Amino acid sequence: MVELSLDGKKNDQASEILKGLSDLYDDLSHAFPSYRNRSTVDFLCETAFGYITIEFQVAKQDFWDKRALAYIASIFGNQLRPKPKKENDDGPDRDIYYRQLQNVIGINLLGDGATPYWKDGRFIRDYTFVDQRGSGHKIPALRLIQYSLGDADLDHKDLKENTDLKQWIEFFKSAHEKDSIPQSVGEPVKKAYSMIQVDTLKKKHPDLLKASDEFFASLTEHDQAVKVQGKEENAREVAKRMISDGMMLEKVVKMTELSPKVVEGLAEEVSNETSRKN
Fold this sequence. Notes:
The chain contains 10 helices and 7 strands.
């Protein structure tokens, strides 16, 4: 006997509900990679024109493009189902096995909405398989669309021509800053605003929003600190090579922009390393 409760109330149809879920188990389990290679996506949507994955990535990460591609590729490949071996498995029915594969579109929302993610003047990147020989032929099975929220200019011509996209970009960029739901947006976007209760968010959770702003600011500071650190480490290595080649310390300071004290310390390191080798 199996008992099932919904919202604290006992439901006498537990067996029928569980049986219905069991009928969907195979479809659900095969839509994801095996446990060994399983990746977690933020949202997976099944639509009339294929699967759509939605990923939010605030902090910039190395190899993000490869990760995003791995996510959608795993969803695509794991649609294949093992099938019983038939005596005549080379007939036209064999194509059904692959015809059932649905296209997969990955949508990435990058950054916090305030800080540029790419810093190259663009805010949309749209990837798919294209014939490199110039025929223009495409394989639409996998597509990866990325939006850099911090790079997005709401006055951009692409957004002026696509008002639906503009409304969603603005929602993800700055919904947390709104005091009320914009009345000019479409119903789906209004529903999104209402789901996050934008009109009461600031009043009920001021500390949370402050912590969120501080967190995003720290990401920018950390990113800058990493770049400065990397630049300085590279300059130190270059300076040590210059010193090893006999260059005057004053010239090393000028060319590497390191402080005289740092260069003198590096010269001492080079001297000690040379002594140990000899």
